Amino acid sequence: MELIQTDIVVIGAGPGGYAAAFYAADLGKKVILIERDPRLGGVCMNRGCIPSKALLNASHVIDSAKEAASRGIQFGEPTLDLDKLRTWKESILQKLGQGIAGLARMRGVTVMHGKGHFEDSNTLRVETAEGQKYIRFEKAIVAVGSRPALPKAFDLGNPRVMTSTEALEIPEVPENLLVIGGGYIGMELGSVYASLGSKVTVIEAMESILAGGADPDLVRPVAAHAKKAFKEVRLKGKVLKMTTAGKQVKVVSEHDGKTFEELYDRVLVSVGRVPNGQDLGLENTKVERDEKGYIKVDERMATTDANIYAIGDIAGGILLAHKASKEARIAVQNIAGEGSAVNRDYVVPAVVFTNPELAWVGLTEQEAKQKGIAVEVAKFPWGASGRALTFDRTDGLTKLILEPETHRILGVGIVGHGAGELIGEGAVAVEMGATADDLAAIVHPHPTLSETLMEAAEAFFGHSTHVHTRKREAH
Amino acid sequence: MDVRLPNIGDGAEGSVVSIVVKPGDTITAGQTIIEVETGKAVAGVPSPTAGTVGEIKVSQGQKISPGTVILTLTGASGGSAAPAPATKPAAAAPKRRAAPVEVDEDDDAPVDDGSEDGPVPAASPYVRKVARDLGIKLSRVRGTESGGRVSVEDLGRYIARLERKVARAGRYAEEPKGMAFEPVNVDFAQFGPVTSEPLSQLRKVIAARMVENKVSLPHVTQFDEADMSRIEALRAAHKAAYEKAGAKLSPTPFIIKAVVAALKKHPKFNSSLNEVTESLILKHYFHIGIAVDTDVGLLVPVLRDADKKSILEIAKELSQIAEKARDRKLGAADMQGGTFTISNQGAIGGGHFTPIINKPEVAILGIGKTAQKPVVTAKGAIEARPLMPITISYDHRIIDGGSAARFTVDLVKAIQEFPEADVTL
Asked: Rounded to two decimals, what is the model's pTM?
């Protein structure tokens, strides 16, 4: 048995794994990157963030064309060539996948396609197309990610019941689509299908859509828009039973004290995600998992096995690509003995690409209330933004969560068109310890939506140009 | 009124060991309300005034610092009598949150893992990383930017201050080379069954002080023995009279008096070195620290003005402070201001031992168990005599070997020739 020696082996080439592999190579380590898919990039690039945003962009074109009618510009009914849409989307993923492979090559990172399996705390067996390979590593970084949850009761073995993975392939535009779960994946993909022409019904178990951490203030415009774009949003609803009924799916559900028995052409199950890596051979190492299957890590991203680190979704916490990339840096820095990186004291922005977009960073008003942290809230409604008026989307709000005495910006929340792009400034403000005084003093370009951040700070002191609020003393 | 934690001495923070009162209790001024484990000891915190206890605002184990509200008192006789708060209580702070002030006493322990106890202070990620790498707590650094944000320059100024401070202190206590030991972190369970007990705050403080004192002072220890025949005879003769006066006549008051006599003759033994001003401070008072062995650990209450007190007064006070120490009722003030320490293990047993100087004092006396031993007399005969092992550890920066020998000779003499007049009631 031939042993391939390496400093570091990274298992999983998603935004956590390839970031870790590249950074480790940049620090002079010998790195092997293992990926079971033929294409690098992981869920984010192949079955998540990127394809969903490509499709959302396509659906925005349809929406914009419709909205243009009120401005005196008429388009005919759009015709859909799903094959072409898929090919276009695929070409983006292809480009990105090749880009990553190229970057790996330039850095001297060895990419090995196959399934990794730990033999012990120093050895990884990889099942490749060319047979078994054995890697002897100093350190391993597990970045195998997560996959959509498909509860047994919903798993009919029927392709008409989809998770986000299948939905992103747009096999067809169903006439009636049921989305189970009104979280960000359900709302984003529901939007895509609604724009393409499906009648979308959302069943959400909680009292609100996007209940996972978003400020109710910010969810409101999204919920209002969904009400118009979707056929129906049933909150506090429950799916009782699903069965195959010919070319349709029969769904029995409960809402508002009534029982529904309905036929849907397709069902999207978006009730959360579950960690991967059950077949990784972790039982042959000292790595421990929690009861949900996430690998236990300390604040240096080290697992309970001294040679093995874990990052990204598999390490639990919030399941976001940019959080995985940050953890990749922390893990590699600790392995390489550079600095004192720890997995705390930073904020992770969240963006939901609904219509309108919703984004926040740092402390939310709700979280402050729950934790009993005294805060002041400054708001700037987009009705007062000239820029928002120019594209007819005044259903936005920019919110600052401030420390009452120092006016330090503890959190920023934005809902509205392009909120995802705007939140970057919020992240800088929070991480730099900026105050409302700072934000109000910084000149923002006109006419742009970024002004809403400055004006929210000005509104806090009662001297916003475009909204009138009570006065208070600046520092 | 709110009762706040007063300044409790040089351990600026403490943790609540026990809460002695409960809501509804009527308490008097000076009554102990909580016990706080601080840098040096477990100290009772007295109520500044009489009243009825309203709400208790602290919990057992909680870390508190001067200004923390302990409880509320209703029907308080007067709110002004806060027990000597040297630090301004938090309520008196200006409305805007004051940036942390870089206080000298806070600078003593700048190096740790850089983790913050409270919320992350306002600073850029870069400044936070630098601080973390250097093990500096950002909450100790005064930020000068908007909202008290710490800039790179603020961090630089803080580091420069630390360097100056270290340079000043370094002239005396240059960090010994090669002293950076790898901390012990062994899984002993691999060798056999073990149990693990976390160190108490007091034990950590004792440990840190012992290391500091032992490492920073050049110790020399002088050994001798004192013939206790005379003191034993005096004790036997006067025991009954003392008992009538309500005191137990142990050898310790004699030793304290003898020590004071020797200190008077050798003032350097009753001094401290000011390492910053480079001057020797000779003290004209004689406060003798008595090491007391308690369940929680070593405590050193101080018997004040031992030179002005009679054997009877000292005997009575000794039993009081020993009891207070064992009942954990010593206040911080009870343990401050010592000029010389006596560690007496005579009641337990054992011979000579080498005590560690209680810095900033310059010498300490260690006493072992008095035992009958053969002594060759001046006439060449061999006699059994009760000999008490004594050891004097002294700071060799201040005290030369000759001075120490002379001090020891005089101390032994003061013990062996103890004047009866001092004992007679």
From this structure: 0.61
